[in-house]
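Lab notebook page, bench 4
Experiment: in silico fold of construct C2
Operator: M.H.
Input chain length: 161 residues
Purpose: comparison with the prior construct
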Amino acid sequence: MTTVHDFQANRISGQSVDLGEFRGKVLLIVNTASQCTFTPQYKGLEELYGKYKDRGFEVLAFPCNQFGAQEPGSSDEIDKFCKEIYDVTFPLFAKVDVNGSQSHPLYQFLKKQAAGIMGTERIKWNFTKFLVRKDGSVYQRYAPYAVPSALAEDIERLLAE
């Protein structure tokens, strides 16, 4: 069986990461953008991370420029923005495509495991969220408008498993 742990991705610094290093942790994987109406969700994501990281929770942010060109910056610009404006301390990854033929393999997997409304796999916008169990299986997909704090109950449930 394939899980999130079977994939690799590049950190925002360019360093390749085996997502197996997150085995045993509950993950919230989010496609992000710096110039989106949902960008203030970075604050809520950081609050969730601060609240649960010591219990085995990680937020993994994947910048994406596919929706309204709302993430045009370089890796350095994105990293600086997230840290200076939102005090982000959770892992940031290199910019990826989440839809189309160049979609990152991790996102191809996530979309198949947790389809959106009416069974569509396509990601509709920035800040679509995937909550992942400790074993790397996908628990649920959340729409961009789902504020991070609304996921707390599900995170608690998975942390207790």
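Observations: The chain has one domain: 4-160. The CA atoms of residues 10 and 16 lie 4 Å apart.
Next step: discuss at group meeting.
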